[in-house]
Specification:
Layout (H helix, E strand, L loop, with lengths): L1 H4 L2 H11 L9 E3 L3 E5 L4 E3 L2 E3 L14 E8 L12 E2 L9 E3 L9 E3 L9 E8 L2 E4 L4 E6 L5 E4 L5 E3 L4 E6 L10 E4 L2 E6 L2 E4 L8 E6 L11 E6 L7 H56 L4 H19 L3 H11 L1
Parallel strand pairs: 2-11, 13-19
Antiparallel strand pairs: 1-4, 3-8, 5-6, 5-9, 7-8, 9-10, 9-11, 12-14, 14-17, 15-16, 15-18, 18-19
This protein binds 2-acetamido-2-deoxy-beta-D-glucopyranose (NAG) (3 copies).
């Protein structure tokens, strides 16, 4: 490594010149001031840490985190201070898990929290260039879940039949990995989990809903009452509109039907008239035919001749005709 060959004063100058962007990080541990968790649930406490690459006093290069440790109620958590997690000793059967690393993440997980876990915890790390503890610490509160509430996706407690609503079980404190149970009028529902989605609502679903963070029903919310409004054609803004649309279509259909019937009646009448007319025509024709039987075949021939002449003069206007015309002109 290039840095190792440089003497500390040269490095310090270089680091100063580098400015804020390239500044060597400070010794620091970052975690929330307090963390609140419902008893029995799992707490994941976020934590991160930094250290300089070169010790500001000794000039020693800091490049190895040798030990990480979490302690309850101790300012600097050094040496043999009682701890809940220590990377240098194996602790079987611990509810305290270190999810962090030796680079910058010091996240701590507490599984199935109990009342006595409520302490202020501090993280300490020891490097080849010295050790450091985040003195502020994180205060962990373990609550009974007396602040459990039901929140709903609708502002009103009244939902129309066929509608939907999503209920969410909330608490001021985190309750990860807890079984959430739901009840309607005190009777357990089959659904579990932090949110309850109710759709295609029927009147049977009207009632008081509660959620609980434990099966014993101890950490139970106050009831949230749901009223499913059955629509019986009451004059409401929504149904009113559909009603008028229905009325409109009914009147359009009846007008069309009336027009159709009129046309049908007219058609029948016209047909009847036509039939009568035809009948009289047939009679007339029969009379005409009887008279024409006397007329000879010569007349028919003359008709045919007229037709033939007419056709040729229309379909074949050619030089022949020009000749004829010119002959006429002369
Ligand atoms: C730290 O580690 C935890 C657990 O692996 C992870 O959930 C979290 O995102 C990490 N934090 C950062 C800042 O990377
Ligand atoms: C934790 O408990 C302390 C003392 O009971 C209280 O003052 C603080 O507000 C609590 N913090 C949270 C996040 O609930
Ligand atoms: C729901 O609770 C209210 C009081 O909060 C009560 O008056 C009502 O009868 C309850 N409804 C049912 C179905 O238990």
């Amino acid at each position: 490594m290039e840095q190792m060959k440089m003497n500390p004063s040269t490095l310090s100058v270089l680091l100063l010149l580098a400015g804020p962007l390239g500044a060597d990080p400070e010794w620091h541990v970052e975690y929330p001031d307090s963390f609140c968790v419902v008893e029995g649930s799992t707490a994941t406490i976020p934590c991160s840490f930094t250290h300089p690459k070169v010790h500001e006093k000794t000039g020693a290069v800091v490049d190895l985190v040798e030990r990480v440790v979490w302690c309850p109620n101790h300012k600097i958590c050094h040496g043999t201070t009682p701890n809940v997690y220590d990377s240098s000793s194996v602790r079987a059967d611990s509810r305290f898990l270190y999810l962090g690393d030796r680079v910058g993440n010091c996240t701590l997980k507490i599984i199935k929290t109990v009342k006595r876990d409520a302490e202020t915890y501090r993280f300490r790390f020891e490097t080849n260039g010295g050790g450091f503890a985040g003195k502020k610490g994180v205060r962990v509160n373990v609550t009974n879940g007396e602040d459990v509430k039901v929140r709903s996706s609708v502002t009103d407690n009244v939902v129309k039949e066929g509608g939907q609503v999503t209920l969410t079980c909330t608490s001021a404190c985190s309750f990860h990995e807890l079984d959430v149970h739901w009840y309607r009028n005190g009777h357990a529902l089959s659904e579990t989990g932090p949110s309850l989605h109710l759709s295609h609502l029927t009147n049977d679903e009207t009632g008081n809903y509660t959620c609980s963070l434990d099966s014993s029903g101890q950490k139970t919310s106050a009831p949230w009452s749901l009223v499913v409004l059955v629509d019986e054609g009451k004059p409401e803004s929504g149904s009113n509109q559909s009603e008028s649309v229905w009325l409109l279509s009914v009147s359009v259909v009846s007008v069309l039907l009336a027009v159709f019937l009129l046309l049908l009646a007219g058609l029948v009448f016209a047909k009847r008239r036509h039939a009568q007319k035809k009948a009289s025509e047939v009679i007339q024709k029969q009379e005409v035919d009887r008279k024409q039987e006397a007329v000879g075949a010569s007349e028919e021939v003359s008709y045919a001749t007229v037709h033939f002449k007419c056709n040729t003069s229309r379909s074949a206007p050619g030089p022949e005709h020009e000749i004829v015309y010119s002959e006429v002109a002369r």
